[in-house]
Write a structure and sequence with these properties.
InterPro entries: Class_I_gatase-like, Peptidase_C26, PuuD-like. The protein is an alpha/beta fold. Helices cover about 30% and strands about 25% of the residues. The longest helix has 20 residues.
Length: about 250
Amino acid sequence: MSANPPLVAVPADVRDFEKYRWHASPDTYLKALVRVAGAVPVIVPAMIGEIDLAAVLDRVDGVLTTGSASNVHPERYGVEPSPSFEPFDRDRDALTDALIGQSLARGLPLLAICRGHQELNVAFGGTLQTEIQELDGRMDHRAITHEDQRERYATRHDVAVTPGGLLASVVGAGPIRVNSLHRQAIDRLGDGLAVEATAPDGTIEAVSVRGAKSFALGLQWHPEFWAESDAPSAAIFEAFGAACRARRDAGR
Ligand SMILES: N[C@@H](CCC(=O)NCCCC(=O)O)C(=O)O
């Protein structure tokens, strides 16, 4: 561990188990931040309204929003809720919406993964589709059923990388092979976002924030899972870590 590592805020998911309510994040994201980005994650409880988020953002050098089995509540993008959009985590929705807006306004680096990528689109006024595997011409982007997470997170399809974009500057011209564990996807792209990668069925797989003051990338896939062994996944976490170090060096 290097001296004075950058600190990265990670919004917690809220889960009920073992008779307690937990505010927690999967360790795959935390390990990729520590081991590949060279950063220290700081898990932020999903208690917006009770915590001073500005005071947290004063002290961190970047934000990473994780994937999750829960979905952004459709009311956030103007769609009537129905069971096909469940499960929800409305406390996380509220936290990530504020974190994304405030971190970008401050010029903090942002890496938004899977649910986080969908949250980024909604934060910019975009919408999501649910059960995309049931739509004409679309692939099945869901995880396979398997006990072994390495099988669930095995790479499934290529993505075409937009030439000249932020992602291309990190992973090269592509295409790159990615994993896929989602049933929702971007429908209408948020104003102010740029498409950075697409799947063969047209699914928007990566976005960046136009005119962002720092690194700001959303990815529908999961580079965290293979960040220690897959070159494009490592490059993404290394680039995010470098942006966080630059932010730290510039003064919080
Ligand atoms: N719930 C959303 C986002 C998908 C996501 O973040 N997946 C993370 C992995 C969850 C798992 O272990 O299956 C969607 O389904 O689109």
